[in-house]
């Protein structure tokens, strides 16, 4: 089968299992001629093993014949850190006001989950990337 010609790539962040044709999904897909309800159903099916409401990035490739395929990425590091620590949001003044503390084990668990989407050669490097994100949110990192 010949490779289909890609006419557009759309990147969105959508809550797992909770996509709807309403913004941001509909307006992003509409100009490319992609059926929003069709994407929504496929996305919600594909994310049924991910915790509902967890924000997941998705990259949608739109082809010339108006069909599409999509790839679901791992949730952003900040979202995972907030989930692990049970935070509503990061600190408004991360260098002054600390909102939580991440243990080495929690840091390693998040790094291992994010590994496929990080530009890191090993878990140690991934942990440094996640630790940097945590610090920028006002979360202390143990160790």
From TrEMBL:
UniProt KW keywords: Methylation, Ribonucleoprotein, Ribosomal protein, RNA-binding, rRNA-binding
The protein's matches in InterPro entries, at most eight in alphabetical order, are given as: Ribosomal_uL11, Ribosomal_uL11_bac-typ, Ribosomal_uL11_C, Ribosomal_uL11_C_sf, Ribosomal_uL11_CS, Ribosomal_uL11_N, Ribosomal_uL11_N_sf
- Keyword Ribosomal protein annotated: yes
| Large ribosomal subunit protein uL11 N-terminal domain sequence ranges | 10-68
UniProt cross-references to SMART domains, sorted A to Z: RL11
Membrane-crossing residue ranges in chain numbering: none
Q: How is it modified after translation?
A: One or more lysine residues are methylated.
* Any Pfam family matching the protein: Ribosomal_L11_N
Q: Name one GO cellular component term.
A: ribosome
Which CDD domains does this one have? Ribosomal_L11
Domain named Large ribosomal subunit protein uL11 C-terminal: residues: 73-141
SUPFAM superfamilies (UniProt xref): Ribosomal L11/L12e N-terminal domain, Ribosomal protein L11, C-terminal domain
On assembly, the entry states: Part of the ribosomal stalk of the 50S ribosomal subunit. Interacts with L10 and the large rRNA to form the base of the stalk. L10 forms an elongated spine to which L12 dimers bind in a sequential fashion forming a multimeric L10(L12)X complex.
Q: Which HAMAP family match?
A: Ribosomal_uL11
The record's function comment reads: Forms part of the ribosomal stalk which helps the ribosome interact with GTP-bound translation factors.
Q: Which family does it belong to?
A: Belongs to the universal ribosomal protein uL11 family.
Its name, as the record gives it, is Large ribosomal subunit protein uL11
The beginning of the lineage is: Bacteria, Pseudomonadati, Spirochaetota, Spirochaetia, Winmispirales
Q: Which gene encodes it?
A: rplK
């Amino acid at each position: 089968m010949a490779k289909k010609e890609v006419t557009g790539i759309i990147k969105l962040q959508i809550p797992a299992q909770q996509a709807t044709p309403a913004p941001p999904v509909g307006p992003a897909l509409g100009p490319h001629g992609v059926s929003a309800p069709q994407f929504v159903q496929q996305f919600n099916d594909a994310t049924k093993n991910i915790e509902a409401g967890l924000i997941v990035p998705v990259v949608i490739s739109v082809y010339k014949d108006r069909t599409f395929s999509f790839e679901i990425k791992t949730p952003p590091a900040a979202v995972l850190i907030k989930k692990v620590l049970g935070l509503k949001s990061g600190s408004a003044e991360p260098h002054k006001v600390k909102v939580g503390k991440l243990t080495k084990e929690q840091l390693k668990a998040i790094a291992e989950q994010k590994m496929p989407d990080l530009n890191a050669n090993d878990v140690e490097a991934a942990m440094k990337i996640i630790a940097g994100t945590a610090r920028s949110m006002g979360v202390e990192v143990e160790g």
